[in-house]
Amino acid sequence: MLAKIEELLQEVDSLTAGNAEELEALRIKYLSKKGVINALMADFRNVPAEQKKEVGMKLNELKNRMQERIAALKETFESQDNGTAELDLTRTAYPIELGTRHPLNIVRNEIISIFNRLGFTIADGPEVEDDWHVFSSMNFAEDHPARDMQDTFFIESHPDIILRTHTSSVQSRVMEVSQPPIRVICPGRVYRNEAISYRAHCFFHQVEGLYIDKNVSFTDLKQVLLQFAQEMFGPETKIRLRPSYFPFTEPSAEMDISCDICGGEGCAFCKYTGWVEILGCGMVDPAVLEANGIDSKVYTGYAFGMGVERITNLKYKVKDLRMFSENDTRFLKEFESAN
């Protein structure tokens, strides 16, 4: 048997195959259940006891080398370009140009990065939502205009199912399964039934934030938003808060930043006011806390929300909102340096 094994070891390195069929024939001949090596292993029981160690080692060496040789030949076939692959005529012609990040992604990632450094984590939720998470849990009245079909996309066969109009629904889902302290931001796409124009679209992107804990105050909210504005638009940026109304916050405010074009002096961009509105905010209404299972007598919180397109327009002075979703490469190339 030793002589037979030595003879096969001499053959291993010289084995060749011209195609996959020949390679499979070699595998069957040497490594299959009825192959040469298995036959030798079956005959191993007849080897005298004093030779078993030597013969066993040689037999294992033969098997390992044969497996390695077959694998090497197979790899050679797989790496060869035999010219039989079909040409995909739908592929972009060479040379293929490298793309860039979309301006909305650039700004969204910058917003997320700023709030991450302030201790906020990211929360996500579905875009197809139900009435409870979008409206009822956020303290919207039954007759609130946002519930009208003129403002919101409803599923006709299931009126309770809608496309979310804000990422506040994610805040509701977080509050359902978590207890304070809660500190999250909720980036995502939202939908509203609006006529598409240079200043509005039926879908856009938001980043909303929520912080709930003991003794959270409006002062905390103001300081966080000031920090965000100065990180995003520059250290000289000023903010102001104007009283407003939202069903889910009380008190509520709109936040403006000093115009970074005229430095607050007044220009056409800021309509000669020196200020530009960027987001809405306020203290979370106790009714919202209670509806989502949080004791409003123990905890308080604040929330804010901004449109990513709005912030992107302020940073890059894009005049037409539709350009963000038209995929015109000439427009997208303008943001290569922003990467």
TrEMBL record:
<keyword id="KW-0547">Nucleotide-binding</keyword>
<dbReference type="InterPro" id="IPR006195">
    <property type="entry name" value="aa-tRNA-synth_II"/>
</dbReference>
<keyword id="KW-0648">Protein biosynthesis</keyword>
<keyword id="KW-0067">ATP-binding</keyword>
<dbReference type="GO" id="GO:0000049">
    <property type="term" value="F:tRNA binding"/>
</dbReference>
<dbReference type="Pfam" id="PF02912">
    <property type="entry name" value="Phe_tRNA-synt_N"/>
</dbReference>
<dbReference type="Pfam" id="PF01409">
    <property type="entry name" value="tRNA-synt_2d"/>
</dbReference>
<dbReference type="GO" id="GO:0000287">
    <property type="term" value="F:magnesium ion binding"/>
</dbReference>
<dbReference type="GO" id="GO:0005737">
    <property type="term" value="C:cytoplasm"/>
</dbReference>
<dbReference type="InterPro" id="IPR022911">
    <property type="entry name" value="Phe_tRNA_ligase_alpha1_bac"/>
</dbReference>
<dbReference type="GO" id="GO:0004826">
    <property type="term" value="F:phenylalanine-tRNA ligase activity"/>
</dbReference>
<dbReference type="InterPro" id="IPR002319">
    <property type="entry name" value="Phenylalanyl-tRNA_Synthase"/>
</dbReference>
<keyword id="KW-0436">Ligase</keyword>
<keyword id="KW-0030">Aminoacyl-tRNA synthetase</keyword>
<keyword id="KW-0963">Cytoplasm</keyword>
<feature type="binding site">
    <location>
        <position position="250"/>
    </location>
    <ligand>
        <name>Mg(2+)</name>
    </ligand>
</feature>
<dbReference type="InterPro" id="IPR010978">
    <property type="entry name" value="tRNA-bd_arm"/>
</dbReference>
<dbReference type="GO" id="GO:0005524">
    <property type="term" value="F:ATP binding"/>
</dbReference>
<keyword id="KW-0460">Magnesium</keyword>
<feature type="domain" description="Aminoacyl-transfer RNA synthetases class-II family profile">
    <location>
        <begin position="107"/>
        <end position="314"/>
    </location>
</feature>
<dbReference type="InterPro" id="IPR045864">
    <property type="entry name" value="aa-tRNA-synth_II/BPL/LPL"/>
</dbReference>
<protein>
    <recommendedName>
        <fullName>Phenylalanine--tRNA ligase alpha subunit</fullName>
        <ecNumber>6.1.1.20</ecNumber>
    </recommendedName>
</protein>
<dbReference type="GO" id="GO:0006432">
    <property type="term" value="P:phenylalanyl-tRNA aminoacylation"/>
</dbReference>
<dbReference type="InterPro" id="IPR004529">
    <property type="entry name" value="Phe-tRNA-synth_IIc_asu"/>
</dbReference>
<comment type="subunit">
    <text>Tetramer of two alpha and two beta subunits.</text>
</comment>
<dbReference type="InterPro" id="IPR004188">
    <property type="entry name" value="Phe-tRNA_ligase_II_N"/>
</dbReference>
<comment type="similarity">
    <text>Belongs to the class-II aminoacyl-tRNA synthetase family. Phe-tRNA synthetase alpha subunit type 1 subfamily.</text>
</comment>
<keyword id="KW-0479">Metal-binding</keyword>
